[in-house]
Amino acid sequence: MQQMAKVGAVMLVGILAATATVSRAQSPYGIGRAATAAEIAGWNIDIGPDGSGLPAGSGSVSHGREVYGNQCAACHGDNGQGGIGDRLVGGQGTLATSKPIRTVGSYWPYAPTLFDYIRRAMPQNAPGSLSNEDVYAVSAYILNLNRLLPADAVLDAKTMAAIKMPNRKMFVDDARPDVNACMSGC
Amino acid sequence: MPHSKMGHNDPARPSRRALLRGAAAIGGATLASGTIGSASASSNLPPEVPEWMKTPGEPMGSQPYGSPSPFEKNVVKNIPKDLPQYLSASGRTPLQDLDGIITPNGLFYERHHGGVPTIDPAQHRLMLHGLVERPMIFTVDDIRRFPSTSRIHFLECSGNPGYQKPFGKTASDLVGLLSCAEWTGVSMKLVLEEAGLRPEAKWVIAEGADAVAMKRSIPIDKCLDDAMVVYSQNGERLRPQQGYPLRLILPGFEGNMNVKWLRRLHVTAEPVYSREETSKYTDLMPDGIARKFSFVMEAKSIILRPSGGQRLSGTGFHEISGIAWSGRGKIRRVDVSVDDGKSWQEAELQAPVLTRALTRFRLPWRWNGEPAVIQSRAIDETGYVQPTLAELLAVRGENYFYHNNAIWPWHIAADGEVSNAANG
Question: Does residue A32 sit at the B interface (CB-CB below 8 Å)?
């Protein structure tokens, strides 16, 4: 009886192993488990440059002014002029000078990146604490300060993806190695 | 910009011979103040027998995790003392105080953007999704089950340093956002293959579990080549500052892409154009055009001894010693000049010379007491030659900020004082 139980157990293990092998046939090591759609949805906060991944909801420039005053102004300045945090506003026309001012308005190539970054990383003391509506609103306000949105604008996934950032076409691929060093008789 | 203002505030290091530990301090781990420069210093020198031979030393177990001698307490990370905030900041390796090619874990340079998270490895997960056949989740133990690999690679921040004066006084001030370690983990290729890549997979977006959820886009070719998902550094588990419990190592690529506290890999057809690869870590040219996705750290070298902040004790023999590295492969040769670039001599390279790792070079030298300018230049296995700062500036201009791999000359004054010639 004991012997039979043992044989049965061995067979069961064998069957389980075979089943596992079949269901994991394409995983070379059979390590890890499947991620569920809900798990991925909870963690995937990536927003593409084309606005893919932007959530539902919207926010106005005027609401954004409030959010900015409460959450951002302490580090980035009342008007986005910078402080402990980066300058966010102005600088258009300065990139080809000896004192370039890189801001959202002058340098960033894609508007949806603003939503992505604010949602994941800001405010510094409580990242991820803003609602999607607040993130849309404060993004709208920063774009308005940069004269890229009118004061009565409301930003959502569609309107954010449609914004043409002024510096959009000014990025090129890495051109290095770009310097031929002189070895002798320089 | 993160790394432009770096003060070096280490107090002058006391001469070893001036240091004396009193008998009362023998059992303790701290250096008692008041024993430095004691009048009885000579009592430990020949012909006297030193104090530390007259009583037993510290017993086994007094330091379950060892730490350096109290006489080395000044060899610490070079952290600026005047930053407006320290959540997004960097601390530099004291390169000029180290030997060989391996950076001790406690002195490995740090750069983080939202502080250092304290992560319970049992509650940490790595998610792999996007253009894969089977979206997956791995525990830290899962990652450790994969076939493991250990390799020695340098890691360097791309803003190390900028292109504008004043440049750092010491080697650490100048290029201390550089370190080198033996990394242990799993080839990233094996992890990706576990989920199965779809043919349209061209990029992998890596994301950290820190407060800024740092993320960068990595070309799939690099992920399938020598990229690693790492859990150990120099034999022990990663330090929290280095991404505990999991991080990426992308050999030769700028430090920021080697995402720490790795929690997510999103396989895509296009890069995500995150803030860190548009607003930051792009290279602005004089005409307003900016280079993007500039990943490789090009060949570079620096003399560490003698270097800025040090003083030659006198004329005669001094070994010139430094480090060279290239993100494109092995260092082929390092030349050293002791006559302000008029002539160059080939330095000896410490074996083995490893791919995308620090390479130690050495050259014997006799100083005649006259002012001198010494410098090194690296040549890597692709034939690339480390340029001068002037050559870099001529092509890139002063707004470029990142990827400055210039030759750094040191000026030696008649009194032996060494300073950064680039500030002259």
Answer: yes
**Under an 8 A CB cutoff, do A172 and B288 touch?**
no
Tell me the per-residue pLDDT of A24-61, one tens digit each, with 9 for 90 and over.
Answer: 457 999 999 999 999 999 999 999 999 999 999 999 99
> What are the sequence ranges of the domains in chain B?
18-74, 121-291, 300-423
Contacts 24+ apart (CB under 8 A), B40-48: B41/B17, B44/B20, B45/B17
Q: Which of residues 101-160 of B touch A (CB under 8 A)?
A: 113-114, 127-129, 133-139, 142, 145-147
Say if CB B243 and CB B226 are below 8 A apart: no
pLDDT at B37: 46
Q: Which of B371, B363, B367, B376 is closest to B411 using CA atoms?
A: B371
Longest CA–CA separation in chain B, Å: 76
Task: Give the ipTM.
Answer: 0.88
CB pair distance less than 8 Å for A172 and B289: yes
Cβ-contact B321, B348 below 8 angstroms: no
**Cβ of A171 under 8 Å from any chain B Cβ?**
yes
Structure tokens of A185? 């008789």
State which fold the B121-291 domain adopts: Sulfite Oxidase; Chain A, domain 2 (3.90.420)
Cβ–Cβ under 8 Å, residues B208 and B263: yes
Q: Do A181 and B293 touch (CB under 8 A)?
A: no
Chain B interface includes A69 (CB < 8 A): no
In a domain, A47, yes or no: no
Instruction: Give me the number of domains chain A comprises.
Output: 1
Domain containing A120 equals 57-170
B293 to chain A: which residues are within 8 Å by CB?
A: 173-174
Q: Nearest C-alpha of chain A: how many angstroms from B184?
A: 18
- Output the six-digit token pair for A94: 């300065």
Is the pLDDT reported for residue A160 higher than 70?
A: yes
Q: Could you tell me if residue A182 is inside a domain?
A: no
pLDDT tens per residue across span B16-41: 333 333 333 333 333 333 344 444 56
In chain A, DSSP assigns E strands to 33-34, 58-60, 154-156, 171-173
Of A108, A121, A182, nearest to B114 by CB-CB distance is A121
Task: Report the CATH number at residue A70.
Answer: 1.10.760.10
Asked if A120 and B213 come within 8 Å (Cβ–Cβ), the reply is: yes
Cβ contact, residue pair B127, A183, below 8 Å: no
Contact at CB, B396 and A178, closer than 8 angstroms? yes
CATH topology of domain B300-423: Immunoglobulin-like (2.60.40)
Query: What is the pLDDT, as a whole number, of residue A111?
Result: 98
> Is B274's CB within 8 Å of A110's CB?
no
